Amino acid sequence: MIEFRDVTFVHQTGKTALRDVSLKVEKAEMLAVVGENGAGKTTLVKHVNGLLKPTKGTVLVDGEDTRLKSTAELSRKVGIAFQNPDHQLFSESVEAETTFALKNFGFSRELIDQRLNWALQFFGLDEYRNSSPLALSGGEKKRLTLACILAWDPEVVILDEPTVGQDAIQKEKLSGIIKMLRSTGKTTIIVSHDVEFIWPLQPRLVVMSQGRIVADGPAHTLMGDEKLLEGARVMQPQLVKLYQRLRRRPDSPFASVNDARMWITGPVGVG
Amino acid sequence: MYWVAGGFIFRRVDSPFHSLDPRVKLLISAELFVVSLTAYSVTQLAVVMGVMLCIAAVAKILKRVGRTLVFSAGFSVFIFVINLFARQSLLTSAIYSVRFLAIIISTSLFFITTSPDELEQVMKSAHLPRDVVFAFTTAVRFIPVLMLDAIQIVDAQKSRGLEVEKGNLIKRVRKMVPVLIPLVVNSVIRSGELAEAMESRAYGAVPRPTSLNRYSSSKRDKLVAAGSLILFIITVYIYVRFPTPL
After folding, report:
1. What Rg do the C-alpha atoms of chain B give, in angstroms?
2. What's residue B70's pLDDT?
3. What does the pLDDT look like over B71-110, one tens digit per residue?
4. What is the DSSP string of A121-160?
């Protein structure tokens, strides 16, 4: 579905953001990209819909070279929800905002109505249909940006830092949406620092550092590698830390629940 | 877009021109502005442009001035065409459009080589009201931030199928609406947040806040300022004494 072949990307400022990146993402796969700030995560995903073209190497989407396609053509297959919803909302109503891309892609009126109704109901935004998107709360704006993307039913959905500014309930909802995307066969790529959010999804994990992919494998394997994550400045999820501490504990059961609680929360427990 | 924006943004460079007292840089820029504005022959404009490009070379900003010129070229062509429509001669129209470019370079020389901090000091030394100084320097500081915002907004809209580079001029202008609205809204929100943050840090609590920077002109600054003034007076004298009709 998506293939990076020895991709290097150099910004106009001369800064190299990606170095010899090779990566293959199959259809219906869920991928999470983690790494420190400036590791090249967003630069990597911007290559998938052709916003950025590789300086060296090739990016293929469904076997087609992204250099030969416009962003608009590639966006029909690849939907990216960017980190900051305020960078895309501009219409006078939630309805107009949601249909913006559908009109750009030349959907029929009937299909636009159908997709609009589905998206607004699915994301619980139906009651705001005629409200200004700029008047929504942070969480609602984020949901609206997702509704705008999923409305045109792209094959690949990329979420750039989806949990930024979201409370626990919104994160829970978002997690449910991502699981739904997986069950409907969408290829999903999540770019995030939020390891606690990524861990329960159990995706394939790509760890990036200084423009390179330093590890690629199942989350349950890579999240256990403390040294690897430390090198890429990524925190281990709390549950993984707890599991590893329990494994290191001498082979004797806790004397009481209180004993276990003290061990977990005390100075030798999970920090 | 970022390439063009880079032509307007200050970057610290180790050059003899950058290290001048900002007031001297302002003086040189103002002199060049006046000389550009009053130039009325091809020879005069060629000399003024030559001098400014030499200064840009000394300041190691020749490429960035080039970017400014690329950005301004559209406006320059517009001025040329408008003058032709107004039944001016080809030469006069050309002089007006080149004069516009000269004026742009003369101001760019100051803004590209002067940091917002230095700009603030210059304005304070001119005894301008503090609020005016703060508003102006903050606007200058926010130019790169707004440019980055604009790039991100364009990316977000392109990802929703907006083809900003396609269509005729009117269509392209209409396509800028999805870019301009978020940019303006973000700027307004950001300015409100900045105002609150500034007030929370006691902005305006005293009429005369402590100033840590005090500029003192070196011998070199004084020499450059005097030299530029002499050259400016000579140029104005030549303009007045030997007028060249268009």
Report:
1. 21
2. 87
3. 888 899 999 999 999 888 899 999 999 999 999 999 989 9
4. HHTT-GGGTTS-GGGS-HHHHHHHHHHHHHTT--SEEEEE
In a domain, A260, yes or no: yes
| Domain presence at residue A247 | yes
d(CA A226, CA A228): 6
Please indicate, yes or no, whether residues A130 and A247 belong to a single structural domain of this protein.
no
Single out the residue of A136, A106, A102 nearest to residue A119, CA to CA: A102
Instruction: Look at chain A and report how many structural domains it folds into.
Output: 3
In a domain? residue A87: no
B43's torsion region: left (phi>0), alpha (psi -120 to 50) or beta? alpha
ipTM of the complex, rounded to two decimals: 0.72
pLDDT computed for residue A137 by the predictor: 87
pLDDT at residue number A271: 46
Amino acid type, A101:
A
CA distance A59 to A50: 9
Q: Does B187 touch chain A (CB under 8 A)?
A: no
Are residues A9 and A139 both part of a single domain?
no
A82/A261 Cα distance (integer angstroms):
41
Residue from A76, A87, A144 to probe the interface with B (highest B Cβ count within 10 Å):
A87
| pLDDT for the residue A256 | 87
Distance CA B149, CA A132 (A): 21
Positions of chain B with pLDDT lower than 50, given as ranges = none
Mean pLDDT of chain A: 90
The structure tokens listed for A252 are: 């004797």
pTM for the structure as a whole? 0.74
Task: Measure the CA–CA gap between A224 and A244, rounded to whole angstroms.
Answer: 8
Is residue A224 one of the residues assigned to a domain? yes
Map tokens 């219906």 to a residue.
A28
- CA gap A175, A163 in Å, rounded: 10
Q: Is the pLDDT of residue A32 over 90?
A: yes
Distance from CA of B153 to the nearest CA of A (A): 5
Tens digit of pLDDT for each residue in A208-238?
999 999 999 999 999 999 999 999 999 999 9
| Distances B41 to B28, B189, B208, B244, B246 between C-alpha atoms, Å | 21, 48, 48, 6, 6
Residues A201 and A215 occupy one common structural domain? yes
Say if strands A16-25 and A2-10 run parallel, antiparallel, or are unpaired.
Answer: antiparallel
* Same domain assignment for residues A161 and A226: yes
Whether B159 contacts chain A with CB within 8 A? yes
Domain housing A260: 238-270
- My answer on whether A71 and A165 are in the same domain is yes
Query: What DSSP assignment string belongs to B65-88?
Result: HHHHHHHHHHHHHHHHHHHHHTT-
A:105-164 residues touching chain B, CB 8 A cutoff: 105, 134, 148-149, 152
